[in-house]
Automatic annotation (TrEMBL):
SUPFAM superfamilies: PLP-dependent transferases (SSF53383)
Protein keywords: Hydrolase, Pyridine nucleotide biosynthesis, Pyridoxal phosphate
Function comment: Catalyzes the cleavage of L-kynurenine (L-Kyn) and L-3-hydroxykynurenine (L-3OHKyn) into anthranilic acid (AA) and 3-hydroxyanthranilic acid (3-OHAA), respectively.
Protein species of origin: Streptomyces xanthophaeus
Pfam family, one: KYNU_C
Subunit description: Homodimer.
Signal sequence coordinates: none
Family: Belongs to the kynureninase family.
Gene Ontology molecular function, alphabetical: kynureninase activity; pyridoxal phosphate binding
Catalytic activity of the protein: L-kynurenine + H2O = anthranilate + L-alanine + H(+); 3-hydroxy-L-kynurenine + H2O = 3-hydroxyanthranilate + L-alanine + H(+)
UniProt-recorded name of the protein: Kynureninase
PTM-bearing positions, type N6-(pyridoxal phosphate)lysine: K228
Claim: Transferase is one of the keywords in the record: no
């Protein structure tokens, strides 16, 4: 398939921006197929270069040779806290507050029931982002039923008005998965806490894309996945953040033996471990977890503030290229134009979005489709460049042409 012709001024701008990009060399830390523009790192991050060898070592040596000794000698047992401490600086958390394991859905359950228990009796409502990713809504409904609360869907912008003395828990996404809208984590956290509620943030679409500042903004609890901007691999384990001030009182609804203060005492009574480790449940998924640990090497020496600056520059430039290449009126951005309201993706609404995305993918530009009519383009600054943004917009324009 021949490449559509570029607008020279945009191609030149892309080349100049890539040449000046301090993060551009980080692409070498990833294994990406030639000729592909990968704009789906907000769904599944690319493969970091060291993961294949690290994983082979885990399988062949740590498991194959050391066998059960690896729980200790290869530090398998402490991996959930150790890797949590590597994720912590990326989300603005001091050590000891993030534990890795299970899926985001399972961690949402722990966080929401734990939050309801922290909120105590006398409060009746669990406010949940009305546009949330479905699993958050499903789990919020179930957690509410189990704890005697009523789950109430609320647009994040309306949360301050909806808060009251009856609010027990608030569950919000920092970045909306469909539109890419960034919500006001500092402001909404402060409002929820001022009302006496416990706030839980889902960081799936923000961790690794922008500064989160969990400690700085006094967030209570947070969850997130590691397979998007953290590049942990398909189905890599998620994480749970429990602010230090809540740890002693955090009462997990899944008190498995791994979260026990002394798991190998094998006692019939449950005594929770100190710190974030009480968020553990059962035996960790070591192969995925250690693949994630190796993947996090891609972040060595990287400042999340620089990632954010490049992410905004990339999405600005992509929107500019879309305006130049795509005939007017055929696509509409549903991602806010304002930097303070934009995550690290651009979502374009269009007719026949599913077919359009299929065409893009067949031409080597990989984004994704979200029902009913949204084309999503995720920009991962560690491995996406400005020439990628230009080519993606140019290919989109060609499809409409
Ligand atoms: C915002 C958000 N929350 C939760 C999930 C689900 O996570 P998991 O499948 O790991 O439970 C996703 C998955 O894409 C998501 O985007």
């Amino acid at each position: 398939m021949s490449e559509p012709t570029a607008i020279p001024a945009l191609a030149a701008r892309a080349a100049a921006l890539d040449a000046a990009d301090e993060l551009g060399k980080l692409r070498e830390r990833f294994t990406l197929p030639d000729g592909v523009v990968y704009l789906d790192g907000n769904s599944l991050g690319a493969l970091p270069a060291g993961v294949a060898a690290a994983t082979a070592d885990v399988v062949a040596r740590q498991w194959g040779e050391l066998l059960i000794r690896s729980w200790d000698e290869s530090r398998w047992w402490t991996a959930p806290e150790r890797i949590g401490d590597r994720i912590a600086p990326l989300v603005g958390a001091a050590p000891g507050q993030v534990v890795v394991g299970d899926s985001t859905s399972v961690n949402l359950f722990k966080a929401l029931v734990g939050a309801a228990r922290l909120a105590g009796p006398g409060r009746t409502r669990l406010l949940v982002d009305a546009a949330t990713f479905p699993t958050d809504g499903y789990i919020a409904q179930s957690a509410a039923r189990m704890t005697g609360l009523t789950a109430v869907p609320v647009d994040p912008a309306d949360v301050p008005a909806a808060l009251g003395p009856d609010t027990a828990v608030v569950l919000l996404n920092q970045v909306d998965y469909r539109t890419g809208r960034l919500h006001d984590l500092p402001g909404l956290t402060a409002a929820a806490r001022a009302a006496g509620a416990v706030v839980v943030w889902d960081l799936c679409h923000s961790a690794g894309a922008l500064p989160v500042g969990l400690d700085a903004h006094a967030v209570d609890l947070a969850v997130g996945c590691t397979y998007k901007y953290l590049n942990g691999g398909p189905g890599s384990p998620a994480y749970l953040y429990i602010a230090e001030r809540h740890q002693a009182a955090f009462d997990s609804p899944l008190p498995g033996w791994n979260g026990h203060a002394d798991p190998f005492a094998m006692t019939p009574d449950y005594r929770p471990a100190e710190g974030a480790a009480r968020g553990r449940v059962g035996t960790p998924d070591i192969l995925s977890m250690l693949a994630l640990e190796a993947a996090l090497d891609a972040w060595d020496g990287v400042r999340i503030e620089d990632v954010r600056a490049k992410s905004l520059a990339l999405t600005d430039f992509f929107l500019e290229c879309v305006a130049a290449y795509v005939p007017q009126g055929l696509v509409e951005s549903v991602t806010p134009a304002g930097h303070d309201q934009r995550g690290s993706q651009v979502s374009l609404r269009t007719e026949n979005a599913r077919e359009v995305m299929g065409e893009l993918i067949s031409r080597g530009v990989i984004g994704d489709f979200r029902a009913p009519d949204v084309l999503r383009f995720g920009f991962t600054p560690l491995y996406v460049g400005f020439a990628d943004a230009e080519r993606a917009a140019r290919t989109l324009g060609h499809i409409f042409g």
